[in-house]
Amino acid sequence: MPDEKLELSETTTTFIEGNQKVARTPSQYEEFIQPCVAELIASIIFVFIGSVSVIENVESAGRLQPALVHGLTVAVLVAIFAEVSGGQFNPVLTVAIYLVGGINHMMAIAYIIVQMIGGLIGAALAKMMTSRAKFANATGAAFTVVKSNDQIAGAVFGEIAMTCFVVMVVCMGAMNGKSKTPLVPFCIGCTVIVNVLAGGDVSGTCLNPARAFGPAVMANYWSYHWIYWIGPLAGALLAAALMRLLLGDEKIRLFMK
């Protein structure tokens, strides 16, 4: 999600120091480097925690355990990183936010790069922490739900629909003037939980290419991996189109202002 600090001009931002709001120009570190570091760390934590939860509980977890782990992790990370980087840690979410005007193209590119690196590091840490037997049994928490061609259509549609849902929640809750809410971390976390519960057995409910890519590299498992790029990207593009054409406020909407 984009930074929600109150902008006084293009280069002046209000910061809270103590109990007072102080207007000053943010440094280059605060404008570019710190947000990228935050996205890197958040991506590492998200993929690490999510992967370990799957690896350690693959035989008994069902859908409830990974749903709660991923959803609650997202909620916490969004809450603590939103004011630093926007708390995105998902390449397709960054694409959608860029398309609705919430981030410039240079930051979007930088975010996507560090998010993918974070996914790799998080998956490597999960491999380091877990036993070889459990890692192999869970295929390193890579997405292995789709095993035949007759499952492809349902999996792709599921990734599109569920990614669209979570991206709309982000955009409506954090960017849209009419529907912004301080409860957006809770809303996003709940959306991830219900998505995993609903679609976990269909596609695995990835929604995030960084979450798919890191474990796939660590386990060298690439079967139907493209689904977890095409599906989430299409879902994010659909959500961005809905915001720009129909759901966005006057600043976001392109037509019928």
TrEMBL record:
It comes from the Eukaryota. InterPro entries: Aquaporin-like, Aquaporin_8, Aquaporin_transptr, MIP. SUPFAM superfamilies: Aquaporin-like (SSF81338). The keyword Transmembrane helix applies. It is found in: Membrane. Its main location: membrane. Keywords: Membrane, Transmembrane, Transmembrane helix, Transport. One of its GO terms (cellular component) is plasma membrane. Belongs to the MIP/aquaporin (TC 1.A.8) family. PANTHER family: AQUAPORIN 8B-RELATED, AQUAPORIN-8. This is Aquaporin-8-like isoform X1. It comes from Acipenser oxyrinchus oxyrinchus. The gene is Aqp8.
